[in-house]
Amino acid sequence: MTNLVCTELALPGVLLIEQKVFHDPRGFFMETYHREKYLEAGISGSFVQDNCSHSLHGVIRGLHYQLKHPQAKLITVLKGQIFDVAVDIRSGSPTFGKWVSQILSEENRRQMYVPTGFAHGFCVLSEEADVLYKCTDIYFPGDDHGLIWCDPGIGIKWPIEHPALSIKDGNLRKLSAIPQDELPQFDS
Asked: What is the dihedral sign for C-alpha 119, 115, 144, 125?
């Protein structure tokens, strides 16, 4: 039934998803989500909230996570191009502190699935970008956590040197400074 091609990236559970896109002289059509097809591909979470952001070139959003209300995310770019990042922050994980990235764009129509236990963020590479992300739990402001985008202990190779950041994102901590009880735990 599925027309999804899912590729597991270097971190277990983080998936790159390619959909079948139907083009004709009017434009294109694609399904951005179909519960049964995603279940068949191994994505079992129920999405309960959709978020959409509009950002300008050079903006970095992230790296964010929720602890008590963890969110898996399915990221889709509607307009523009982003450098999308997931960082394994599960205490005790064999890949703790490791990261993966993908270029997602309106041209390649790829999606990235980021499971719970990972921090997520992205950088806008195009003039502007509209990003849609489905979440498996609702946003709780009191459960909002994150780590600094430029943590040298993680070493993300961002494609921009001087990003535009929110005050909150600019004041996040390094992963090594976050207490164990503020990180998700690895379930082996």
From this structure: positive
133 is catalytic: yes
* Among the listed residues 137, 89, 84, 85, the one whose alpha carbon sits nearest the alpha carbon of residue 108: 84
Q: Tokens at residue 161, please?
A: 């040197």
Annotated active-site residue 64? The verdict is yes
Q: Which of 64, 65, 113, 120 is catalytic?
A: 64
What is the tens place of the pLDDT at every residue in 121-141?
999 999 999 999 999 999 999
Residues 90, 142, 155, 113, CA torsion sign = positive
DSSP character string of 66-133: ESSS---EEEEEEESEEEEEEEE--BT-TTTT-EEEEEEETTT--EEEE-TTEEEEEEE-SSEEEEEE
Taking the C-alpha atoms of residue 101 and residue 128, their distance in angstroms, rounded to an integer, is 19
92 vs 21, higher pLDDT: 92
DSSP assignment letter at 186 = P
Q: Which is catalytic among the residues 38, 65, 133, 145?
A: 133
